[in-house]
Every structure is written in structure tokens, then in C-alpha cells.
Write a structure and sequence with these properties.
By secondary structure, this protein is of the alpha/beta class. The strands form three sheets. A nine-stranded mixed β-sheet has the order 3-4-5-2-1-6-7-10-11, sandwiched between helices. It has a six-stranded parallel β-sheet with strand order 14-13-12-15-16-17, sandwiched between helices. It is elongated, with a radius of gyration of 37 Å.
Length: 844
């Protein structure tokens, strides 16, 4: 009986120190607790304890059984109360009466009266109003009252927040799903750590119990899809309980074992609404350049398949439709593989042998800055596989990866290129780059054009590449090469068709035709009239004309890209959607009138990717190869990625961003995607760099801010091996571009079974089709998530749907991964499209 007395005394004191009603009872309690009733109850309790201890014990057990509060909370209250046995009963009685359990708890608190002094017992018999604040009888009671008064605001705030969270739990599916992921040991641990059960806890106990007793089939855990999760929720809960950590604590990044704690943080964050563990900075982010307009739909109210084919540039007007036996006409809406199923089921037409020369400033992996280098390498390889001859001409940079060149030797040692009023001596080198025939032009000039340690970024870039264009054509003419087609790329080689038709055709070099591919309309190569004197074009009054090289916006500037469009036989860009956006959607950066004037020779072809490099079946950079039939091995790469980046190993999906940190890529939305993912039960990985120091500095600061998070890793820089592992190990990848000509990121991600989340713009709209809203596509052709508006709400609409599908419909998410892996975005189909164009223009 003595042991039981101690327990009950602790319960008494615990109630006295933590209950908010000890200072200010509610109106309901005041009306229920009159002085007469209190005196009567106190006398009855005292007499019961003195006369029959067994009866008191029986009443305690009965009151405990009828009480609907959780037992662990009652026991925790009881064990704490023995520290203040001398608390006046006058103070204890109102505090107990302030709770809804006053009638059942009252007999349990009468036991300590036996050991209290007679003075205290007499004081208990006298009527005391609940609102009275009498001075404490001793120092212990004074200390107890002080602690209670200090804790009261905190406890009140906690009670209010818990009540709001439980109300939202009934309406919010996200909060409810997070709660269901908690196991029974986690709940008990949380209850034992709480100081005092609140009113909302007792009232909502029955709904919570009902939610726990739902069938396991309704659980949102993606266990069937994620076989590599190392521990279940029960193990994580026991780990947190053994550590004694509160659910709101965030585990350190260096201790992945406490991943369950981070999960608790995300659940509590979502239930509180405005408060979040990972707060997104409110500072203004890097804004796009003033001339950059957001890429919008050409016809926002029309379904996407309606405005992909524009009558203005759909076909070359003078050309009649060819017969079925001949090659398809190279129309402007050369669509992605999924757009022409009947055509793709048949092999391409057997064209006569063609000799193609690629003149380019970049070549992967020799000299690579962006996607242009990959396009030239992949397209050249595809053309050679189809039996055509391809040669590549590029500058001989001092910063090239010479270890990729085999058999480098001099092939033309006496090339003199006209420049200003004289000539510059050049040497032409030859070598094989992964089987491709390459010629490298090395000028011996005091200007030191291509020996500067990097490829771009100099004030005289226009002069450097103007000289390269003149040197390339001079080499072709003097070496006796007569290609059928010269394929040029971007503004750096835009002067090739100008030189060809204004200078070299007059010298007898009349056979080649020019295909000009624009990879990005943002960079156009603006310059002044000094270029005409340097290159030997002269006649400024001739070239400063709206029908030739005069820029459409700046009255005294030459536009090299405009010259390429005007003088080329056919102009392509890297996706049909981007072709429409540049001509009609405000993405032409001033070249819209020129594109309209030459619409009959303008179209788009989606780029491909090299499946010899980006292929999960043979990739040497990933932990485990996998295919569509063995997609489970993808999760071995997910674990390897977490081990390398020190991420918590849990059930959360990994959302990634891989790419150049450029305002074009939508960096403000990338930042928002990072914080949104962390606050909605997902992990985030970023890999990228920027040539601009301010952007790199910003992401370095963001990395330091989130360095301790177990669910986030930011890598400022570029690592080829890590990029492969991210593509293989991530579950989703975000590409929220402001504008995107084609985009290779989503194409690579789909090959690795990583679901893309993209903005409906440019090549992204041509290659990714929304799982829920792409009604013009069959279910097996839908391969990702798409949003249209360039703002946080638009991004969240796609991100939330993807995360919800991952948790709630794992089988659907798995099929979405397989749909993405089945898409064929190799160079097989783009190569055929370019052959159609070459054959179309070579006899014109």
C-alpha cells in the first residue's frame, strides 16, 4: 500500500505542475465546483481513505477503467507526482476539477492526505474558490506553483497546435498518410515523452484508433516498389524511441541510422501548415535576362497536338507531295518517335551515298561545353552507320582532351586564309575521335585564336569563329573536297553559308548545300561592320540590309545567326515545339520576322542521345545494370547513391536536378522544388555548375545552409560518374526550364527509368507526356508529369502528383518508369529525319 501511495502522490503533483487550468480554471469548471460540493467531496474522500483502504484501491481501478485517456499518459503523470507530497490540497482540488476527468481522478488523489499534516488536512476541508491565489504554505509548494505558471503558455500553445493538427489530419490526405506510416511503438514512444495529454487528444482518440485499424491494403507505403528499404517503420520507430528523441528533432546528416527521426520531422511539418523544418529563403533569386520572354503556348486554349503542326511552316511550298515509294518530304514538324508510329515501324528509305561535312565549334568528348557537342557526335555516328561518309571540322583548341584522339597527324601544312589585307598561315591536323574522321584547324596568328585555355568567353569570340568559318571553307576548296551537304551549327558557324554563296561559288565551289541547325536562339553573334573588312566580305551597304545580315532590333549591328538563316538551304532547330515557339511564341529573340519570311525552309527535329554512353544495361559508372525486365536493380543504384552522398536510407523518393545552373533552366523553380521536396517526404539531389560566379556562390551558400540535412545533397560542379549514378538512382528528375530548345536531361533520365517532371515548353513538351492529362496519348505512351505555368503553383501541381503516386499507387509509378524506359530516343529516328533533309536540299 505504501508503494501505491507513492505513485498516486506523483500523479497529484504532476497534475498540479503541468495543467493549464491550475491558474485559470474554465467557466465550466467554476460552475461545477461550488464551495459546498468541494467540501463535501473532500470529506467523503478523506473518510474513505481512513476507513477502508481496499475500497479506495477498488475505486481507483474502476476510475482507471472508465477513463478514456491513454494509460501511458496516466502512468507518466502518476510517477512524477511524488516529488511534492506537501502540496496543499486546496490547490490540488481545483486543478483536478479543471479537467473533464475530475470525478474519476478525485479519489485517486485522496491517498496522500493520510501523510499530510493536520494543518493541511484542515485547510482542505475549508471551502476554497478555484480562482483564489493563496500564498503557498511552504517553499516546495511555492516552487511547484512557479514551475506550473511558467509552463502554462508553452503547454497551451502545444495543445492548440495539436488540436489544429488533428483537425487537419481528417481532411488532408498527406498528413493522414504520414500518420499511417507510423507504427504502434512510435505512437507509444511519443505519448510517453509528452508531458500532459491534452483535451483534443482525448476527444480524438476514437477517430485515431479507427484510422489505425484500417486494412493494410490502404497503407501508402511503397514497399512493393522499393525492395531496397533496409528497415521497416517499426525498426525506425524503435530506434527513435531508444534514443529518446522527440518527433520534431532533425537527425544529423552524418548519422543515417536516425532516418526515422527525419521522417517524423516531415510529418510534423506537414501537419502544422505554415511552419516548416526547411524554410525556403525569401530573398530575390537570380532573375532571367530582360530580353528573355517566358515560353508560352502558341494557342493556350488549344490542346498541345493542335498547335504542333503550323500550316505556315508545315511543308516546303514549291515541292509537290512525293510518291509513296520515295522518301518522306522533310516537313517542319519532324516529330519525336512516338508521333509517327507507322513510319517508325518501317526501315528508312535507301538513299544514295552522301558525303556530309560537319563544321562545328564543339565535339564530345573532345571539346564539350553543352548539348551541341553530343548532337554532333551522335548524329555523325548514326549517319556513318547508315553507310554515308561523314567528316568533322573544328578548331584545334589547346584545352581539348587529346587522349580521345587516335593517330593525330598533320594533313595540310600550307593553308593560307585571307584575313584583313593579308593572310594567316594555318596547319590542318587529322585524327580519329571514337571512329569519327576529324580535321583540326590550327592558325599561326599573333591573335592566338584557339590557345586560350577555354573555348568561349572572350570579347573577340565573333572574330575568332568568323576566321574559323573562312578557314574551314578555304580548306575544303583547296583540298578538293566537294561534299554534298555542309552541316553547320549555331552562330559560331553561321557565316559558312554566307562565305559559300558570296565568295566560294564564284570560285567554282558550287556543289555543296548547307543545312544550318540552331541549338539556342538566345546567342546570335551580334557584331559591327569591322567584321566585313576582316573576312573580305566588304560592301557594308550590301550586307546592312534587312534581307541579309542587318539585325532586326539594333540598327547598326550585324547578326550572324540571321545571315545563316537567310543563306542556308534549310534551317532546323532541335524540336518541333521550339520551332513554333521561336517563330510564333516570342522565343526568337528578334528573329521572328526572318523566320516568317523563310518559313518554307524552317523546321524542327528532336535530338537523340547516344545509347552507347547513356544505357543502364552497359553503363560502367553505376552500381548495378538493369533493364525494363529487371527494373528492381535500379534500387541497388538508389542505395549506392545514398551511400555516396551520405543520405538517409529510408522509404522516401529521391528527386534530382542535373544540368547547367543557368537562368534559362528556371533556377528559382529549382530552388522551390528543393524545399518543397524536403517538406513533403522526399529527398533532393542537385548536381550542376554555372560559369557565372554569383550563381555558383548562391548555391554554395545554399549547400552550407542544408549541409546537415539527411535528405539533401548539393554538388556545385560537374562529375560525369556522379551524373550517371544520379540518373540511375533517382526516382524523379525536375526540369522546370524557362525555355528549353530540346533538353537532353529528360531523355537520359527516361532511359534510366527516372520519371521526368518538366514544364510544357520546347523539346520537353515534345518528349514528355503527362500521366494524368495527356489524353491524346495512349496510357503506355505516357511517361512523366508536365506543368504549364512558370510559377511555384505550377511546379507544385506536378510535384505533388508525382509524390502522391509514388506513395499511394506504387504499381502505377512502376509502370510509369517502364513506359519511360521503353521510349526510343536514340539517333535512329533523328538520323533518318536529317537524311530526309539532306536528300531534299542536295540537288537544289
Amino acid at each position: 500500500m505504501a508503494k501505491q501511495t507513492t505513485t498516486k502522490t506523483r500523479s497529484s503533483t504532476k497534475t498540479a505542475t503541468t495543467n493549464k487550468a491550475s491558474e485559470k480554471p474554465t467557466t465550466e469548471n467554476q460552475s461545477a465546483l461550488t464551495p459546498e460540493v468541494e467540501e463535501e467531496q473532500a470529506s467523503a474522500a478523506a473518510s474513505t481513505v481512513n476507513d477502508d483502504p481496499k475500497a479506495e484501491s477498488f475505486k481507483m481501478e474502476k476510475s482507471t477503467q472508465t477513463d478514456d485517456a491513454p494509460k501511458p499518459n496516466l502512468s507518466s503523470e502518476s510517477e512524477t507526482a511524488a516529488k511534492s507530497k506537501t502540496v496543499p490540497k486546496a490547490k490540488t482540488a481545483p486543478e483536478v476539477k479543471s479537467s473533464p476527468k475530475a470525478q474519476t481522478t478525485k479519489p485517486a488523489q485522496a491517498e496522500p492526505v493520510k501523510k499530510a499534516s493536520s494543518k493541511t488536512a484542515n485547510a482542505a476541508k475549508s471551502p476554497v474558490k478555484p480562482k483564489a491565489k493563496a500564498a503557498p504554505k511552504n517553499k516546495l509548494s511555492e516552487k511547484t506553483k512557479t514551475v506550473s505558471s511558467v509552463k502554462t503558455p508553452t503547454q497551451a500553445k502545444k495543445d492548440e497546435e495539436k488540436a489544429k493538427a488533428e483537425i487537419k489530419a481528417k481532411d488532408s490526405p498527406k498528413t493522414k498518410s504520414a500518420e499511417e506510416l507510423k507504427s504502434a511503438p512510435m505512437r507509444n514512444s511519443a505519448n510517453s515523452n509528452s508531458d500532459q495529454p491534452t483535451e483534443s487528444d482525448r476527444q480524438n482518440k476514437a477517430p485515431e484508433t479507427t484510422a489505425q485499424e484500417k486494412p493494410k491494403a490502404e497503407s501508402l507505403s511503397p514497399a512493393p516498389v522499393l525492395p531496397v528499404v533496409p528497415q521497416n517503420e517499426i525498426a525506425a520507430a524503435e530506434n527513435v524511441a531508444s534514443k529518446g528523441a522527440a518527433p520534431s528533432q532533425v537527425s544529423e546528416k552524418g548519422a543515417p541510422k536516425q532516418s526515422g527521426t527525419a521522417g517524423e520531422t516531415q510529418v510534423e511539418t506537414s501537419s502544422k501548415g505554415d511552419e516548416s523544418v526547411y524554410r525556403e529563403p525569401n530573398t530575390a533569386f537570380i532573375t532571367p535576362l530582360p530580353e528573355v520572354a517566358q515560353a508560352t503556348s502558341i494557342s493556350p486554349g488549344v490542346p498541345s497536338e493542335k498547335f504542333r503542326r503550323q500550316p505556315d511552316y508545315s511543308k516546303a511550298e514549291p515541292i509537290a507531295p512525293p510518291p509513296e515509294s520515295s522518301a518522306p518530304e522533310p516537313v517542319a514538324d519532324m516529330m519525336s518517335p512516338l508521333e509517327h508510329a507507322p513510319y517508325h515501324d518501317q526501315p528508312g528509305p535507301d538513299y544514295p551515298h552522301m558525303f556530309v561535312v560537319q563544321i562545328t565549334p564543339e565535339l564530345a568528348p573532345l571539346a564539350k561545353v553543352g548539348g551541341l557537342a553530343d548532337v554532333v557526335t551522335g548524329l555523325s555516328r548514326e549517319l556513318e552507320l547508315r553507310g554515308h561518309s561523314v567528316e568533322i571540322i573544328l578548331p584545334k583548341y589547346d584545352c581539348m582532351h587529346y587522349d580521345h584522339i587516335w593517330g593525330l597527324c598533320k594533313t595540310y601544312d600550307d593553308l593560307w586564309v585571307p584575313w584583313y589585307n593579308g593572310h594567316i598561315h594555318c596547319t590542318v591536323w587529322f585524327g580519329f575521335v571514337h571512329g569519327r574522321k576529324c580535321f583540326f584547324i590550327e592558325p599561326h596568328s599573333p591573335d592566338n585564336f584557339f590557345n586560350r585555355g577555354t573555348i568561349y568567353g572572350f570579347n573577340d569570340d565573333v572574330l575568332r569563329y568568323a576566321f574559323f568559318c573562312r578557314a574551314a571553307l578555304e580548306f575544303l576548296w583547296k583540298s578538293g573536297k566537294h561534299p554534298d551537304v555542309i552541316h553547320c551549327h549555331d552562330w559560331q558557324t553561321a557565316l559558312v553559308p554566307v562565305f559559300l554563296y558570296e565568295i566560294y561559288q564564284n570560285l567554282g565551289f558550287w556543289h555543296p548545300r548547307v543545312c544550318f541547325t540552331i541549338h539556342n536562339f538566345k546567342h546570335q553573334g551580334l557584331t559591327g561592320d569591322f567584321l566585313l573588312n576582316a573576312t573580305g566580305l566588304h560592301r557594308p551597304e550590301y550586307y546592312f540590309h534587312h534581307d541579309r545580315l542587318l539585325d532586326n532590333r539594333i540598327p547598326h549591328a550585324l547578326n550572324l545567326m540571321k545571315g545563316g538563316i537567310v543563306y542556308s538551304n534549310f534551317v532546323t532547330t532541335v524540336s518541333p515545339r521550339y520551332a513554333g515557339e521561336t517563330k510564333d511564341g516570342g522565343q526568337g529573340f528578334g528573329l521572328e520576322p526572318t523566320l516568317h519570311a523563310h518559313h518554307y525552309k524552317f523546321g524542327g527535329v528532336v535530338n537523340g542521345i547516344d545509347y552507347d554512353v547513356w544505357n543502364p544495361e552497359i553503363d560502367p559508372h553505376i552500381a548495378a545494370p538493369f533493364t525494363v525486365e529487371k527494373v528492381d536493380n535500379k534500387y541497388l543504384n538508389k542505395r549506392a547513391l545514398r551511400d555516396r552522398l551520405l543520405l538517409a536510407d529510408n522509404e522516401k523518393p529521391i528527386i534530382a536536378f542535373v544540368g547547367r545552373l543557368d537562368p534559362q533552366k528556371g533556377l528559382d523553380l529549382v530552388r522551390h522544388a528543393l524545399f518543397y521536396s524536403l517538406n513533403h517526404r522526399a529527398q533532393f539531389v542537385l548536381l550542376g555548375s554555372s560559369p557565372e560566379r554569383d550563381i555558383n556562390s548562391y548555391f554554395w551558400e545554399l549547400k552550407r545552409h542544408l549541409n546537415e540535412s539527411p535528405d539533401c545533397h548539393i554538388e556545385v560542379g560537374f562529375d560525369e560518374g556522379l551524373a550517371h549514378l544520379i540518373y540511375a538512382g533517382a526516382d524523379m528528375i525536375v526540369v522546370p526550364s524557362l525555355f528549353e530548345p530540346c533538353g537532353l536531361t529528360q531523355l537520359i533520365a527516361m532511359k534510366y527509368g527516372t520519371v521526368p517532371i518538366v514544364r510544357e515548353v520546347g523539346g520537353l513538351a515534345d518528349t514528355v507526356f503527362d500521366k494524368d492529362h495527356a489524353h491524346h496519348k495512349a496510357l503506355h505512351e505516357r511517361n512523366g508529369y508536365v506543368f504549364r505555368d512558370y510559377n511555384n503553383d505550377g511546379l507544385e501541381s506536378a510535384l505533388s502528383r508525382s509524390i502522391d503516386c509514388y506513395y499511394q499507387f506504387p504499381d502505377h509509378f512502376r509502370e510509369l518508369m517502364k513506359n519511360a524506359m521503353r521510349c526510343d530516343y536514340s539517333w535512329k529516328y533523328p538520323g533518318q529525319h536529317y537524311l530526309n533533309i539532306y536528300d531534299y536540299i542536295r540537288n537544289k
